[in-house]
Amino acid sequence: MKTFTLFIAMLSCVFTYTTARALPADGKKATISFTAETNGKKIYFQSESDTIHGYQEVKPGETVTLQLEKPAYYYYMHSNGKTCTYFVTPGSASRIIDKNGQVSFEGDNAEINRFLQQHPSFTKIPDNITMYSKEWLDLQHKRLSEAIEALKTSGLPADFIHIQEYYYKYSILTQLLAGPAMMRMFMKKDLELPANYYDDIKKNRYEDAVLLYYPKWFTVMRESMETLEKVGEWEPDPTNFLSQYAARIANDEVKAAFLVRYLKQILKAGYSEDFPTYLSIAKSSVPQPDEAFLRQLTQLEQQHNEMKVQYSTITRGNSAPAFTANDVNGKACSSSDYAGKVMVLDFWFSGCIPCKAEMPYMEKLAEKMQEKNIQFFTLSLDTGDQLLKAWQTLVKDKNGATLQLNVPGGFKSELAKHYGIRSVPRIVIIDQQGKIVDAFAKRPSDPKLYQQLLKLLGEENTGKLTKEKLSATMQALMRAETAEQKEEILKNITAEVKKEKAEFAYPMVNMMTSFTIQALYAEGKQEKAEEYLSHIADSPFKRDILAISGSKCFENGNFKPAAGLLERAVNMTIGDKDINALSEEERNKYRIILSLYVEALIKTDRTQDAIPYAKQAYELSNKHDFSINNCYATTLVAEKKFSDARPLLEEFVRTGKASPQHTEWLKQAYIQKNGKEKGFEPYMNGLKADYRKSLQERLAQEMVNEPAPMFTLRNMKGEEVSLSNLKGKVVVLDFWATWCGPCKASFPAMQETINQFADNKDVVFLFINTLDTKKNLQEIVQKYMNEKGYTFNVLFDTQDAATKKYPVKENYKIKGIPAKFIIDKEGNIRFKPMGFSGSNEETVKELSAMIEVLL
């Protein structure tokens, strides 16, 4: 592997056990058959995931095939209307038998599903216990203890017990969080909760990645964080809240998964001007991010940039259109009457349940701020006599600080069209100058909206150092390009913190110090970095600084300082402790740091020093990480342990990852075993045949046949290149951008593929630069290509001035880069490989196979 990024290992789907019993885990497909006598009643089967809504009907006699990466929970709704939880594992085959509501199970996991049927997570509450009272809470805790005790004495596989224990715990949290809100929404009851009601949330630090198996894990975590804000556990921060959330999550794998889901949710809710800040917080909150996490952040950043173009007329700073709407008596009211005030527009309609749930919060917020220079509007989009009557009934008795108005034309009005309103509730904030501040603001039930409005009114605490200023300073430091610039920012904020004795600021100052140290090490300024580091006590925090600094040096090709920093991080993690005494999170960190340290030692010709560490990293891994396996194989060969290295080397060949060096080592292993070289070629051909067969099967599945959109673009020489002129040739298109790390990481493999087909005039490679807004782009690209020695024919997909879109990228319907398209001689797209696997050898072989199929 040519590049290495520290990663947080995803929870493995292949389990090991302390007993002989195990969950089925061979392959990814799972099948569930339904044998049902239902007297015509419908039955349903679907994932419990919080991203799925409604129910999916299945038919008696039907077999459902699921593509699973890991065990999962599903719902089965009986013919009698009852619902049970169903546990499925990759590679399993099982059957649900429903005889008029009497349900039983056969096949894999039958014993597990019988247990779940007998020990459900939700049970009936006695009539004499008030919902969400102290008695209800005590009963839930008692039942949870009983369920876990039954689980642990069930004799079921240990890994299932571990997973199901968290399922039970988080099912309780689901009820605890959702219950009061549902009561308020549907039963109009505002409950008085016991003092200890949220204790389970307050003490939860998300320390075990197994909670990610719970289908509603993200909903529980998000609502927990937001609830802690509402109950005053911490002060809501409109810009730095994601950092507060991340700080409560102890497990880095969970933290990364949560941040990605939360960022996706923000984008789903609409365009956010603060999204770049949220992205920066996400990047800095995960100390050792894996490539998948960084790739997802890049894709989200790209999606945000596209949304910025889409909503360019309503982004921050645009003038807000004036509007006229009617009150409940039909009297016209104009927004121009409130010029000079902050305006909050709440778009809704009477049939929207979430809108009506937010109304009490909006009314309280308006009342709370009625003495300030601000006006709240609730703008009904109801049209037609029936809906208008419903609206009038809902608001006729409301005499609070909020103006209750109806917008003529509703969703089809010019006002709704201008703000692109297709769903409600939707909150828009306008400042005192009539400029849009936020066209997709937070809902009034979110206390962060109040803080945002206070800041807009200039009523935050400006006389002293504030969290907002501290957060902005940290963002500025992170954006600073050089270590010297970061140092200057750090010195100034540290002096201000000391002057004001702002104790709350030190955690963020420590983070800024760590970023500065990392930059100093990366620039080779070791003496200055060590000076800063000397003021930090030995701790996991200091260890993380060393590890991240080492990884950055490694990525920059500075392997010797990387090895020194990583060695210190390794020793600080393990010291004289038994590895089994470490927490799961610390063991994961130790493995990650250790594996990169091993690779740095090998890169600096210290393979002998790497031997004991390489073995330990391999033993701690899931045995499927190519980088760790490659390092371990390298050390085994250095020890002349060819028989131990041979299985690893054979696997590299079978999976297409073998380099010429691996092949040579495998030959030595073969000779050592057989005493001669004879027979090696047939042996190698057999291993390669396995890869060719799997590759051919995959290519056959991936092959498409779609007309390739034509284009004409200019290259770095100013020449026009038209796809229509290349008919009769196989054309490889590679869409990339200068800011895209995975794109550039794949370039060595792309150059190798070009070299392989250099003598074949029927193969053409075009590298289409897109989604780039840098000034002097062509000059930057030319310099980069010259420095790296790439012989690419780069074309420029220039942004359209009117639409702000990139025409060729749009025509090819590209959602993320790197994106490649292999076009046949007739001008049809036949393959669309996405992303970059990280293995140059594998990429070259796959691309070459795709091209050769079309020649």
Task: Label this structure with key terms.
855 residues; alpha+beta; 6-stranded mixed β-sheet; 5-stranded mixed β-sheet; 48% helix; globular; disordered N terminus
Low-confidence parts, pLDDT < 50 over ≥5 residues?
Answer: 1-22
How many distinct helices?
A: 30
Task: Specify the structural class.
Answer: alpha+beta
Characterize the overall form. globular
Tell me roughly what share of residues is in helical segments.
40-55%
Approximately how much beta-strand content do the residues carry? Answer: 5-15%
As an assembly, this protein is single chain
For the report, how would you describe the main beta sheet? Answer: 6 strands, mixed
**Mean pLDDT, as a whole number?**
88
Q: Could you give the order of strands across the largest sheet?
A: 16-23-22-19-20-21
- CA-CA gap between termini: 29 Å
The radius of gyration is: 30 Å
Tell how many strands the DSSP assignment holds: 23
